[in-house]
């Protein structure tokens, strides 16, 4: 797993208080990890802070799963 | 009933320490108060639950803690104790809809607002937590309690500064009388022992500053050396229930709310009027609504903040009781826990109910030399065993708001 994926996983575990094993790439923040809409806003902010990236609102709305977040951040970092 | 206060966690733990004459006041530990004029406060002791101390994660899941200011944490702790104690966990939709919540706070999420202000001031407004607003809003204690237990009845909150706790319990009992609910979880929660809270009351010259080196002596209602109140934090919550409803399910009934009175001073934003005539009218209204004789009241839990206003309240109580003043016990439990602002009235109403249950008047600590003599026994230093059938509790707030509640054993 990439360094980015590791860090994303850690942030998700910390913010949503879920077990690490549940944070699979396919896991949906809302459907599988118990987040509500405010939790997802906070998560995106935490990603922005941790990776020094800007995630505009329309992009943030499309980040529904752990993999979505990893892919978006990897693309930003590669750019 | 549930209490978390500077004396610790839990109803009986608080009560036994209070009756033993112990104090919950100390040097402020949650931040360095050196820059401020007042260095003392009553903070909830941190430690194991079994020892009567607070381990927050035992009550509020870690992941949820950052979504709430501390006043909500403390409100949830006391509400959980109260609901568990009451045994009222409605399962049916109908029962849930007949159960409401009315928990207030004087100030709300002050530390949260302070932290958020700094985030915005530093140009990081986009980094502001989405939980900032619901963390700071006063009615969110009621909100969280309703969500936790599924209480779908009236969801309300009171904000009347230091009179909040009494107003919440009084208003909630009125909602039951009016038929809006069968059960109401009511009380107050406060956590303003933070730099902004202490600094604000310091600027208003309201806090004690002369006992920074002897914190336990700082809260000394009616004593000639008193020099201001000591701020405390905590929460007091009761479960109120329509009498027949409680009886039918065999609930443990601690007491009955029999009277409630309110008034406004229309005088000054922080100072009470001459002779505390607003307090007099609030007590008088409570006695009238209870349909009792003043002489039935055996104990008064005074507002008694350890400020100049103590003697004005004393005058108002003397005026109300007249020739019966000599038979009355009146104490200020703020001498042991400080002034819990919006939670004070709720915690003190609970102490009043326990005073009836056990026939004990809790003491006024540090009352070494009363600034005014009175026929009323102010229970200096040590608790007194005496017959108490009916008790009255007073709370007065900035803005000139006064509330009195009368409770009786069942």
TrEMBL record, chain B:
Q: Which SMART domains match?
A: PKS_KS
- In this entry, which stretches build a coiled coil? none
Catalysed reaction(s) here are:
(9Z)-hexadecenoyl-[ACP] + malonyl-[ACP] + H(+) = 3-oxo-(11Z)-octadecenoyl-[ACP] + holo-[ACP] + CO2; a fatty acyl-[ACP] + malonyl-[ACP] + H(+) = a 3-oxoacyl-[ACP] + holo-[ACP] + CO2
The alphabetical list of record keywords is: Acyltransferase, Fatty acid biosynthesis, Fatty acid metabolism, Lipid biosynthesis, Lipid metabolism, Transferase
By its UniProt entry, which InterPro entries does this protein fall under?
A: 3-oxoacyl-ACP_synth-2, Beta-ketoacyl_synthase, Ketoacyl_synth_AS, Ketoacyl_synth_C, Ketoacyl_synth_N, PKS_Beta-ketoAc_synthase_dom, Thiolase-like
EC id:
2.3.1.179
The protein's matches in Pfam families, at most eight in alphabetical order, are given as: ketoacyl-synt, Ketoacyl-synt_C
PROSITE patterns, alphabetically?
KS3_1, KS3_2
Domain Ketosynthase family 3 (KS3): from-to ranges: 1-409
What Gene3D superfamilies does UniProt report for this protein, alphabetically?
3.40.47.10
- Highest taxon of the source? Bacteria
User: Which pathway?
Assistant: Lipid metabolism; fatty acid biosynthesis
The protein's enzyme class:
transferase
Which family does the entry's similarity section mention?
Belongs to the thiolase-like superfamily. Beta-ketoacyl-ACP synthases family.
- What is this protein's function per UniProt? Involved in the type II fatty acid elongation cycle. Catalyzes the elongation of a wide range of acyl-ACP by the addition of two carbons from malonyl-ACP to an acyl acceptor. Can efficiently catalyze the conversion of palmitoleoyl-ACP (cis-hexadec-9-enoyl-ACP) to cis-vaccenoyl-ACP (cis-octadec-11-enoyl-ACP), an essential step in the thermal regulation of fatty acid composition.
UniProt xrefs under NCBIfam families:
fabF (TIGR03150), PRK06333.1 (NF004970), PRK07314.1 (NF005589)
List the protein's name. Answer: 3-oxoacyl-[acyl-carrier-protein] synthase 2
* Organism this protein belongs to: Gluconacetobacter sacchari DSM 12717
């Amino acid at each position: 797993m990439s360094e980015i994926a590791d860090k994303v996983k850690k942030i998700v575990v910390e913010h949503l208080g879920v077990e690490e094993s549940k944070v699979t790439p396919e896991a949906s923040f809302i459907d599988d990890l118990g987040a509500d809409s405010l939790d997802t806003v906070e998560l995106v902010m935490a990603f922005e802070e941790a990776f020094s990236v800007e995630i505009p609102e329309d992009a943030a709305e499309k980040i529904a799963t752990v993999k979505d977040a990893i892919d978006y951040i990897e693309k930003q970092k590669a750019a | 009933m549930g209490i978390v206060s500077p004396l610790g966690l839990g109803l009986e733990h608080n009560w036994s320490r209070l009756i033993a004459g112990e104090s919950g006041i100390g040097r402020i530990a949650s931040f360095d108060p050196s820059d401020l004029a007042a260095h003392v406060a009553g903070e909830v002791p941190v430690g194991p639950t079994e020892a009567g101390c607070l381990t927050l994660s035992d009550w509020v899941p870690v992941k949820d803690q950052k979504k709430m200011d501390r006043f909500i944490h403390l409100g949830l702790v006391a509400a959980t104790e109260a609901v568990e104690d009451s045994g009222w966990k409605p399962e049916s939709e109908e029962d849930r809809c007949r159960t409401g919540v009315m928990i207030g706070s004087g100030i709300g999420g002050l530390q949260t607002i302070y932290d958020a202000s700094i985030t915005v001031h530093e140009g990081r407004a986009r980094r502001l937590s989405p939980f900032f607003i619901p963390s700071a809003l006063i009615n969110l204690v009621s909100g969280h309690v309703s969500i936790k237990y599924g209480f779908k009845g009236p969801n309300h909150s009171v904000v009347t500064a230091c009179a909040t706790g009494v107003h919440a319990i009084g208003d909630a009992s009125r909602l039951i009388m009016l038929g809006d609910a069968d059960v109401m979880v009511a009380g107050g929660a406060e956590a303003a022992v933070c730099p902004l809270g202490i600094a604000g009351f310091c600027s208003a010259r309201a806090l004690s500053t002369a006992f920074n080196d002897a914190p336990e002596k700082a809260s000394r209602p009616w004593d000639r050396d008193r020099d201001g109140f000591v701020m405390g934090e905590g929460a007091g919550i009761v479960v109120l229930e329509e009498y027949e409803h409680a009886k039918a399910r065999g609930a443990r009934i601690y007491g009955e709310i029999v009277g409630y009175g309110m008034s406004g001073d229309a005088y000054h934003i922080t100072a009470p009027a001459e002779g505390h005539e607003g307090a007099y009218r609030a007590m008088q209204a409570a006695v009238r609504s209870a349909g009792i004789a003043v002489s039935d009241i055996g104990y008064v839990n005074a507002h008694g903040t350890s400020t100049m206003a103590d003697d004005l309240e004393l005058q108002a109580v003397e005026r109300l009781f007249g020739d019966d003043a000599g038979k009355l016990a009146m104490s200020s439990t703020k001498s042991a826990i400080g002034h819990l602002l919006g939670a004070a009235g709720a915690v003190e109403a609970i102490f009043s109910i326990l005073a009836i249950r056990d026939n004990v008047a809790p003491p006024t600590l540090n009352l070494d030399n009363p600034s005014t003599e009175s026929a009323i026994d102010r229970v200096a230093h040590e608790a007194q065993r005496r017959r108490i059938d009916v008790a009255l509790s007073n709370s007065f707030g900035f803005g000139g708001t006064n509330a009195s509640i009368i409770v009786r054993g069942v």
